[in-house]
Amino acid sequence: MIRLAWGQLRHRAGRALLLLLGIVVAATGFTVLTGTASTQRLEITGTVQQNYRAQYDLLVRPKGSASALERGQDLVRANYLSGIFGGISFAQYDAIKKLDGIEVAAPIGMIGYITGRGRESFDVGAELRGERTMFRLQFTHVLDRGLTRISYGAPDYSYFTRRPLEVGMGEGDQTQYVSEKLAGGRTVSLGKPFYQPPDPDPSPYYFDQKNRSIGWWSEKTAYDGEQQPTPPRLSIVQDFPFVLAAVDPDAEARLAGLDDAMTGGRYLKQRESSESQTATMPGLKEIKLIASDRSYTDQREEAVISRLPAAAAERATREPSARSFRAYLDGQRGQEVLRRTFDSQESYRRLLDQWENLPPGVWNPFTRYWVPGPTGYRVDGPRRVAALPVTNDPDVWKDPAYDMFGGLGAATRAPLGSADTQFRTLTPRYIEGGIGTLTSRVVGRFDPAKMPGINELTRVPMETYNPPEAAPGDARSRELLANRPLLPGDNVAGYLQAPPLLLTNFDGLRLITEATKGAPAAKAPLSVVRVRVAGVTGPDAVSRERISQVARDIVAATGLDVDITIGSSPTPVTVDLPAGRYGRPALTLSEGWVSKGVAYQILDAADRKSVALFVLILAVCALFVLNAAAAAVRARRTELGVLACLGWARRRIFGVVLLELGLIGLLAGGLAALLAMPLSAWSGLPEPGARTFLAIPAALALALLAGLPPALRAARVPPVEAVRPAPRLPRRARSPRGVASLAVTGLTRAPGRSLLAAATLAIAVVALTILLGVTYGFRGRVVGSLLGDAIVLQARAVDYVAIGLMFALAALAVADVLYLGVRERDGELAALKAFGWPSAALARLIVTEGVGVGVLGAVAGAGVGLAVTLAVTGTAGAAVAVGALVAGAVAVLLAALASVAPAVLVQRLPPARVLARE
Q1: Nearest of 101, 117, 47 to residue 414 by alpha carbon
Q2: DSSP 413
Q3: pTM above threshold 0.85
C-alpha cells in the first residue's frame, strides 16, 4: 500500500504538488499566526504590566457619595472631589492606617473656596495733558477660550492732576474726601463728585454695581496723603477663587512626591504653630498654607482707556453732585489712547507674593468660604450626559463680618465669572467671631509640573494637583474652542473646578472647621482617602487578591465606600454643556472619567481574542485542506474505481487515500518548519522558536482530518460508477446563454465544492471586517479607555498580517476549485472551443466563475462581520460599513486573481486531443 501511495504521488506530481503547496501554506500560516496571536497577548499583557498601576490602588469615599451614574457604569467621574466636603472622620482615617497590607493612606480634606484679589497696573504718563486729565476705563472679563465676554455695565473713571491733593475722612459716614490745592493756595474739594454712597441693595458683581466712586492720582501726593511723587498709573483688579484643602504632609509626600515639587519657601509640617505674627491682635490664630505656583484658570482682562476732553477734568473742580458728574462724563466722547490685555498668571503670582511676604502687624483675615455641591447630570445614553444648570441666591455672597461698617461691604464683590451660568449649589460658611478670629499666611509654593510623572494610560483623578480638562467632543466644539480644551475660570459655581490651589495640614483643617459657624464638618472633615496597597507586583491573581482583601478590610472597619482603582484608565464621557449667559454657545465636551478595572478587562479580552484568532486560523486551514484533499481524491476517482473492480476492500481504498494525504502532510510539515523561521523574520514577527516543530504534527493532523470525508466518500462509491459515472440529468433543462449564465451552471454543477471555497473566503472577510470596524469605526469605544486604545493600535499591524495569510489560503482554495472544474469539464470546454468559442471567451468564463465565488464569500463574510461587530460594539456606523465593503472588495479581487492560472489552462486546451479521448 505504501508503494502504491508513493507511486500515485509520483505519477500525479502536479496534483500532489498543489496539495503539498496548500498544506505548506496552511501549516506555515498556522505556525506563524498562532505565534502572532501569542505575540499579541504578550504585547497586551506587557502593556498592561507596565501601565496597570496608578498612584493609588483604592479610593475611599464617604458612604453614598458615588453617584448613580458612577455606580451604574463602573466609573469615577471627573471632578470627583468637588461636592465632597467632609464625610470621613479622623478616627476612620486612623483605623485605615492601622490595617495590615497598607503601604500609604493619604487623605484629602476639602474645605471650600476663598477669594483673593490681584491687581495689575500700567503707566499712562505719556497720555497726560495739561494740569488735569480725566480717563475713562472700559473693562471686559474674558473666559472660556474667548467665548465668554463679560463687559462692565458702566465704565470706570480716573482723575489725574499734577497738583497736590489732600485726603481726609468725613465725620460719621466713613467717606473719604479729596481736596486739590489750586494756584494761589486756594483749595477745592473733590469729595462729592468722587464719592458715591453704596447702593442700598448692591449687586455682588462689580460690573453690575451702579454707584462706583471715581479714582484719583496726584503727581505730588500718594494715596495715603503723604507728600511723595508716584508714577501716573491705572490699575485693574482680578479676582481669583482658591480651592482650599487639607492634606497629611508626610502621607502626601510618600504618595505623590509633593515635597519634591516645592519651588519656594518651605513644605508643610505635620504640626504647625497657630500663633499669629500680628502683635496687635494676640488672640488671632494663623493658618499655614502652601500654594500652587500655577493658577490653572483661563481668564483675562481686556482694558480700553480713553482720554476725555480737558473740560471734563476742569469740571471736577466745580463740586457738582456725584450723580450729575457721572452722567456728564458718560456723555463725553473720548479719544482711545490705550488697549491692554492682562493674563491672570502674573497677577496670581503677585498676589501670592503679597500673601507670602506679609510684614509683621499686617494680617489677612479669614472670615468665610463657600462649599460648592456636585454637578447634576442627565443621562442621555451610554457614556453621554448633560450637565444641569442651577441658580444660587445672590445672598450667598454676603459677609456678616462686615456689618460693623454699617452695611458697607455686606455684599462683598464676587468673582466676575460667577455671574455666568452656574452648575453647583453654593453653601456659604462663616467664621464665628468674624474679623479677628483667623488669619492665613503662605509659607511655601509648589509646582505640580515638578511632581513625578503620571502615566496618561492609567491616570486616575489626582485633582489635588491636576486641572480638569474637557476636550472638544465634536467638530463644532473643536472649531469654537480652536481645538483646545475648556479650562476652569473664576466661576465658583461653574462646571469645571480648579484644583486646590491652597493646601494646609490637619492643624489648619481643625482651626477652620472648629471656628466655622455651626461646625458642620468638624466631626468628619476628610473628603477622601487614597490608599496604596503593599506587596502589589502586577495584575496577577495574588496582587488582585491583596487589593481586594484590603478593600474588604476598609469597608468592615469603617463602613465607607471603596473603589478599586488599580488597573483603571481614563475613558471618554461625552458631556453636553448648555450655553452660558455671556456669549458662550452650547458645547459638546469629552471628559476623561475613569473606567475601573480596565487592565483586567483587557487581559480577559486578550484571552478571548487569542481564542477567536486560533479558531479562525484553524477554520481557514481546515477548509483549505479539506477542499484540496477532496479535489485530489476526485481527480483519482477512476483509478480508485479500477482498484475496487479488482477486488480491493473499501478499508484498503480508504487507507491508501489517507496514506497518500499523510505522506503529503508529513512532507508539507517539514517544509513549513523550515519556512516558519525566515518568514517570521521577513515579516517582522518574533521568531517562533520551539513552536517551529509544531508545524509537522499540525500539517499531518490537518491532512488526515481534512482527508477523512473525501477518503470515506471514495471508499463508498460503487466501482462501476467510479470507472464511468452515469450522466446526471438536470431536474429542469436550461440552455445557458452567454458567459455569465454558463459560469453559474459551472458553479452549481458541484455546489458543495463552490460553497467550500466561498466559505474559506468568507471567514477571511469576517476577520477583516471586524478589524477594520474596530480600528477605524470604534477606536476608543470598543475598549473605551486610553489604555485600550493604545493596545488596539499596538496590535493592529499583527492582526493584518494574520488576516493576509488567511486571504492567501482562501485564494489558493478558489484556484484549486476552479482548476479541478476545468479538468472535469475539459471535454465540454474543448467542444466549445471546437465550435468557435475564442480562447479569450473561455478564459473570461473561468474568471467569471472565480468572481462568482468571490462575490458569494464577500457577501456572506461582510454580513456576518457586520453582525459580529454590532454585537461586540453595540452599534455599526458608516465606518464599519465601509470596512465591510473594503473586505468584500478584497475577497472579490483575490478570487479574480486566483482564477488567472485556471483561465490560462483553459486557453491552452488542445481540442482535438481532448475530444479524441472522449
Answers
A1: 117
A2: P
A3: no
